[in-house]
Write a structure and sequence with these properties.
8-stranded mixed sheet; 9 helices; about 45% helix; alpha/beta
Length: about 300
């Protein structure tokens, strides 16, 4: 009996260690998603590098996070402004080289860093949920500071920025059009993909635990704000979805699902050979031409 008792005790202790280790690993993974200290990278490009005048700006969100950005006026006075939003682990300089040409087409451009990234304040990034407060703060700031330049507003977003663009446009009828590059279809699916790429973590049984801690720390369920639930509300305003056929983080299937869920008018372009966040680099002249055509027709 004593030997059997020790065996049972050993098994129970082993199970306890396994459970505690699993919980610790999942909490640690959730922290890495929400507090991406290693993802905060310095800016590497500025509008002056492209011979564009600009203003350094800062503004606050509804939850008192200070965000930093640039306002780039069009060559000629314009009432049309495009808000341009980067992805997770990026900053505003990441999207500047492939979008700054839009200034020459008569648009004011507004770039800003999401919270916890680039030069902005805050230490929590939520891959979309909290960042919706950031774009709302940006729109409020623009309307207060540059009312004559933002009578018409379009959104451009890359990856996480694409999710934010879709969800904000669905909520805000003042948004005239949306370009979403490499947006994810579902928060749950993109976290699952990220965890697999970085930790080889299988969805079951670990991801439900990670998602539980993400919801707990955010005090909300970010899945509810996924584009899959919001994109149909953009219609009848136009949306242009761009995605790399070879996207290694958010598979192109996400773009196809979003396109099917969106109402008309809608456009989908799958860029051959493009990886995640590389459509501008891979698409080259065609990328700029398609962006130009879309905004010219929609804004």
């Amino acid at each position: 009996m004593t030997a059997l008792f020790h065996i049972i005790l050993g098994v129970l202790l082993g199970i306890l260690v396994l459970v505690l280790g699993t919980v610790y690993f999942c909490k640690r993974t959730a922290r890495h998603v929400l507090h991406p200290k290693k993802k905060r990278k310095p800016l590497f490009a500025w509008p002056e590098d492209y011979n564009m005048p600009y203003e350094n700006v800062s503004f606050q969100t509804m939850d008192h996070v200070t965000l930093k950005g640039w306002f780039v006026p069009a060559k000629e006075p314009s009432e049309k402004t495009i808000i341009l939003m980067h992805g997770w682990g990026m900053n505003r300089s990441s999207i500047l080289p492939y979008t700054c040409f839009l200034r020459d087409m008569g648009y004011n451009l507004f770039y800003f860093d999401f919270r916890a990234l680039g030069e902005s304040g805050g230490d929590t990034s939520s891959i979309g949920y909290l960042e919706l407060r950031d774009v709302r703060g940006a729109i409020h700031f623009l309307k207060q500071t540059y009312p004559d330049q933002c009578k018409q507003i379009g959104l451009y977003g890359l990856s996480m920025g694409g999710m934010v663009a879709i969800s904000e446009a669905a909520r805000n009828p003042e948004i005239k059009c949306v370009v979403a590059e490499a947006p994810y279809y579902s928060f749950r699916k993109v976290v699952s993909r990220w965890a697999w790429i970085h930790y080889h973590m299988p969805y079951f049984p670990l991801l439900p635990i990670v998602l539980h801690y993400l919801r707990r720390q955010l005090g909300a369920n970010p899945e509810r704000y996924s584009p899959k639930y919001t994109i149909e509300k953009i219609a009848p305003r136009p949306i242009f979805i761009i995605h790399g056929r070879s996207d290694n983080l958010v598979p192109a299937a996400h773009a196809r699902r979003l396109y099917r869920a969106a109402g008309d008018p809608k456009t989908l372009w799958l860029v051959p050979g493009a990886l995640h966040g590389k459509c501008g680099e891979t698409g080259g002249y065609e990328y700029k031409q398609r962006l130009a055509d879309f905004f010219r027709a929609s804004l």
